[in-house]
Every structure is written in C-alpha cells, then in structure tokens.
Design brief:
Blueprint: H1 3-12, H2 20-25, E1 34-39, H3 46-58, E2 63-67, H4 68-71, H5 75-85, E3 88-92, E4 105-110
Parallel strand pairs: 2-3
Antiparallel strand pairs: 1-4, 2-4
Helix pairs in contact: 3-5
Region (Disordered): 1-22
Pfam families: DUF1694
Protein name: YueI family protein
Length: 122
C-alpha cells in the first residue's frame, strides 16, 4: 500500500483498527483498561451494583460504559451510580456485540490508561 493512501485512510478514520474483536467485547475499550466488567446475566444482581459503586468511588477518573441493549431497563440504576459518584459515562445503543460470547458484557468501567487488573469480573 502506498504511504499517501495510508495517511489519507487514517485522516478519514477508515484505517485499520487495532484489536477490533477485543474492543467489541469490552464495549469499545481495550482489556488492559477495564477495571470492572458486568455480564448481561449479572445486571440485576445487587452485588454487581454494590461492587460497581465501590469501584466508581475508588476510580473517579474512570468512564462507565453502558450497553443499553444488554442492560435493559436496569441501565438507569447504573447510570444513576455514575452520576452520583461524578464519574463520566457513555451510553451505547447500537453496540455490535461479539458473536463469540454467549453472555456479553453489559457494563464496563474503564480507565483512561492501562491498569492491567487480572480479575475484572464479579
């Protein structure tokens, strides 16, 4: 590929993506940035909400990413936790879910930089 073509692709945002499957799985972020990930099957679990509230307070610069389709009506509870703690949040409504996962993540708390936490699930 010609260097000028590659530069033009990147300027238009149509260049190659780094780890697209990983970004799909973790709601648009990379695994190394994930602080906590809550699966769709865990969305109504009170322990999930409590754990998330604790992690939000411990990580005030983290961004809460909510997939509204996966979280269903419970997304409002998680949104309120982010607002109450003062964390930034993102709502996804057209997220492309990884087809390789039977129980995808509905909620992801992500740092701006790599944190490399080994156990990100409940």
């Amino acid at each position: 590929m010609d260097v000028n073509d590659r530069l033009e692709q990147n300027q238009n945002g149509s260049g190659p993506n780094l780890k697209p499957d990983e970004k799909r799985l973790y709601l648009g972020t990379y695994r190394e940035r994930v602080i906590l990930a809550i699966k769709t099957s865990q969305i109504n679990d009170e322990n999930a909400k409590t754990t998330l509230a604790d992690r939000l307070q411990a990580n005030p610069d983290a961004n809460l990413i909510i997939d509204q389709n996966q979280a269903g009506g419970a997304y409002i509870d998680y949104l309120q936790l982010a607002i109450k703690s003062g964390n930034n949040y993102s709502l996804l409504s057209n997220n492309e879910v990884s087809k390789a996962v039977s129980d995808p993540y509905a909620i992801v708390l992500a740092a701006k930089k790599a944190v490399n936490i080994d156990n990100i699930e409940l």
